[in-house]
Amino acid sequence: MELYVPILVLAVLAAGFAVFSVGIAPFTGPKRWNRAKLDAYECGIEPTPQPVGGGRFPLKYMITAMLFIVFDIEIIFLYPWAVAFDRLGVFGLVEMVLFIVTVLVAYAYVWRRRGLDWD
Amino acid sequence: MNGTIQAPTLEYAQLAPMLVVFGAAIVGVLVEAFAPRYLRSAIHVPITLLSLAGAFALTIWQVVKGVPTKPAAMGAVAVDGPSLFIWGTILVLAFVSVLLINDEDHFVAAAAAVPGSAEEEQALHEGAGHTEVYPLALFAVGGMLLFPASNDLLVMFVALEVMSLPLYLLCGLARRRRLLSQEAAVKYFLLGAFSSAFFLYGTALLYGYAGSIDLAKISAALGVVGGQETLLYIGVAMLGVGLLFKIGAAPFQAWKPDVYQGAPTPITALMASGTLVAAFGALLRVFWVALGGLDWNWSPVLWAVAILTMVVGAILAITQTDIKRMLAYSSIAHGGFLLVGVVATGAAAGQNSKALSAILFYLVAYGFTTVGAFAVVTMVRDAGGEAWHLSRWAGLGKRSPLLAGIFAFFLLAFAGIPLTSGFFGKYAVFQAAVAGGATPLVIVGVVASAVAAFFYVRVIVLMFFSDPAADGPSVVLPSRGTAAVVGVAVLATVFLGVFPQPVLHLAQNAAQSLFIR
Amino acid sequence: MGESITFWVLAVVSVIAALGLVFSRRAVYSALMLGVVMFSLAVLYAVQDAPFLAAVQIIVYTGAVMMLFLFVLMLVGVDSSDSLVETIRGQRFWAVLAGLAFAALLGLGIGNAVLSPPKGLAAANRAGNVPSLAELIFTRHVFAFEVTSALLITAALGAMVLAHRERAEPKQTQKDLSRARFVRFGQLGRNPGPLPGPGTYARHNAIDMPALLPDGSVSPLSVNRVVARYEAAEGTLPPEVERILQEEALSERANGHVARPLGEEDGK
């Protein structure tokens, strides 16, 4: 269990920071109330209402999401490899590089075909 | 914590066919990334065909060199006689299917555009196309190679996914009847993901029972581990669901007609031949290597499944009015006939190898015929694409006797008429089943074959003995690729029907060593 | 001791969160509840000597899948709801029945196994949980590991094929947009520059304060129309701003076209 003490400390710190920031804001910030400040976008852009039933949403988001998942899964494999790196030696390094390069091929494809552009 | 980990030994020579296919697929993705659009197709086709041919040559080289007797890659992959035979079969069928895929007007120009929108029209006009189909097909073929050769359930699961994922995608890329194609892709994906989950759950439970996912170790644990039979039975049942789904056996056959119909026809050909062969290889390996000692328990279930599959496939095929759906139901029925062979195993190694060689031969025969049949389907076209409705095929024999004759020949091979490859396939499987004591199953099989023959003959009668409609479909002049596919399929069907001996001999040799443990 | 305390606390938390997930009427709440359930599961894994599984649970499920859920909710619309009409009659009844039967079967099978003490855990974790896993991944299962990359490539390819639309015409660059702005300036006399920020040269930089020009008058360009609309409704509109808006409305009517603040038609 001692393994998790740093994580617990970090969690407490994070929670404390969140509570502190939200709690202190009303006392330190300037207060000029205006209805516009309660809008979703304070800068004055009017939020467009969502059509009833959801409507269509841009499918482009799928690409970002999928690429995110792909690299997330790559991280999962990196984790045990990093922990046991000193014991795995050169073979582990070669296998991991091979894996990363292979996944990078997918990245190169998405990048070259402008899948990363949001327009 | 200290002490270096010994690097694993990988038998690269044995894995070479798969490595070639996967490597070519990755090169294909790089081509997609860096080559300009007008060059892509010209680069892809040689890469794809050469890699498949190279992998086939490597497979042959291994057979010549001597079949390995130990699993490769630290026991993850079993390159044995049946594996090599199945690899050869899949590679040839994939090669032939890629020739069909090469006719690019089967695939959509812009899959992300809304079907029927102006954008789609524009993409079509500009000659855009998804050349990604080539690397995707190669990934699928790589998965098909690994699936029947995997020696533990984890590798088998990864292979199952590598094989299925590209196929889900490819199903949704038909150029015409977009909505049907997308529906097929979604159905295939959802049901396939569901069946994968079953497979994975079964794997977990079997691991809980045996303490290993290694097929040989599961086999060794049978009867030794006491008190955990529930885990074993539920695990086996779930694993069975996952595998039977892939071959489209009866309670899990619902996806097949929809997917075969909606997918682009070249992809249907690849699925109907390659996937079926791979899935049967994996099914055989799991049920014989890992669960061979449990056959008292699973063989009654497989009896029921085989009977149901044959009956459902044969009877529902009669009611179809769509040529692709009819071929899908015929594929289900053939899956049932093949399951008869799976059931026909016994305690004796001789009986096992006999049944195995019969199944292997059947798979080769059926694979070629089905690719040929789907190739013919691509050539009969209406204004809106391929003419699928059976009524449109009426009188085709008078309009284009050669094509109709070839199709009739394929249908007769499906029915198992003597002098076609289908006859010897069925004969071998049923003979093995009788020898294995599954005579009632064979009787059901023969009756189902007769029912199936009825609807094949019905199509033949429709083609030759009814009058062609005035606005009937036209038969397009086949491209060189399609013509070659049909030619190869006809030759294979004739050759295997008249001189089955060489291939039968090859199958027997392959089955001699059985699956290695 | 610590283990059982953790378990009982998390058991209550996760069951309440799971119930909230099912019964909550708003999709975002359900998603957040799901996050709580996933997080509790991760802690339970950690307590059960499975740190790798705990990390995977957090990185992949709580981190990635959960965020994707929220992302989808955002895009689909928070207040959208599904049609609850059954397309196949009696489907729900049979689905529930089959689900319950399946759960009972699994419960029997696994419960049976769980009652006996675990075996082999110590041997499997001899070198530590994660290093032992690494050893397995990079020796026995190294081939499966490498083949997984094919799966990841296929996923990326699939996303691109199904979701990416290639541009038919080249994308407008900054240069093109700027050129178009100046062409419009030449033709219609519209200011090609950006709008002044609110409150420039004034006492405040809050958005409801229009900017003042060097001579002390209000700059019409910097009046925030949204804020002005609210203020007009509440009667707190400053008189000078009101005058500007009225003048603008008059000139619009005279010219017969509706003047819009610059930049709005350029950005979209």
From TrEMBL, chain A:
The organism's place on the tree of life at top rank: Bacteria
Q: Which UniProt keywords apply?
A: Cell membrane, Membrane, NAD, Oxidoreductase, Quinone, Translocase, Transmembrane, Transmembrane helix, Transport
* Listed transmembrane segments: 6-27, 61-82, 88-110
| Enzyme's top EC category | translocase
**What are its E.C. numbers?**
7.1.1.-
Q: Which family does it belong to?
A: Belongs to the complex I subunit 3 family.
Q: How does it assemble?
A: NDH-1 is composed of 14 different subunits. Subunits NuoA, H, J, K, L, M, N constitute the membrane sector of the complex.
Q: What name does the UniProt record give this protein?
A: NADH-quinone oxidoreductase subunit A
Automatic annotation (TrEMBL), chain B:
Which superkingdom?
A: Bacteria
Q: Where is this chain's protein located in or outside the cell?
A: Cell membrane; Endomembrane system; Membrane
An example of a Gene Ontology cellular component annotation for this protein is: plasma membrane
The record describes its membrane topology as:
Multi-pass membrane protein
Q: Where are the transmembrane segments?
A: 12-31, 43-64, 84-101, 133-149, 155-174, 186-210, 230-255, 267-288, 300-319, 326-349, 355-380, 401-421, 441-465, 477-499
Keyword list, A-Z = Cell membrane, Membrane, NAD, Quinone, Translocase, Transmembrane, Transmembrane helix, Transport
Do you know which InterPro entries this protein is assigned to?
NADH-Q_OxRdtase_suN/2, ND/Mrp_TM
Q: Which reaction does it catalyse?
A: a quinone + NADH + 5 H(+)(in) = a quinol + NAD(+) + 4 H(+)(out)
Q: What is its EC number?
A: 7.1.1.-
Q: What is its main location?
A: membrane
Q: Residues in domain NADH:quinone oxidoreductase/Mrp antiporter transmembrane? A: 150-450
Q: Which GO terms describe its molecular function?
A: NADH dehydrogenase (quinone) (non-electrogenic) activity; NADH dehydrogenase (ubiquinone) activity; quinone binding
One biological process term in Gene Ontology: ATP synthesis coupled electron transport
Q: How does it assemble?
A: NDH-1 is composed of 14 different subunits. Subunits NuoA, H, J, K, L, M, N constitute the membrane sector of the complex.
Its biological purpose: NDH-1 shuttles electrons from NADH, via FMN and iron-sulfur (Fe-S) centers, to quinones in the respiratory chain. The immediate electron acceptor for the enzyme in this species is believed to be a menaquinone. Couples the redox reaction to proton translocation (for every two electrons transferred, four hydrogen ions are translocated across the cytoplasmic membrane), and thus conserves the redox energy in a proton gradient.
Write out the similarity annotation: Belongs to the complex I subunit 2 family.
Write the protein's name. NADH-quinone oxidoreductase subunit N
Record organism: Planotetraspora silvatica
UniProtKB/TrEMBL annotation, chain C:
Name of the protein in question: NADH-quinone oxidoreductase subunit J
Localization annotation: Cell membrane
* Native source organism of the sequence: Planotetraspora mira
Annotated GO molecular function terms are:
NADH dehydrogenase (ubiquinone) activity; quinone binding
PANTHER family with a match to the protein in the record: NADH-QUINONE OXIDOREDUCTASE SUBUNIT J, NADH-UBIQUINONE OXIDOREDUCTASE CHAIN 6
Q: Which GO terms describe its cellular component?
A: plasma membrane
Superkingdom of the source species: Bacteria
Might you give the EC number(s) for this enzyme?
A: 7.1.1.-
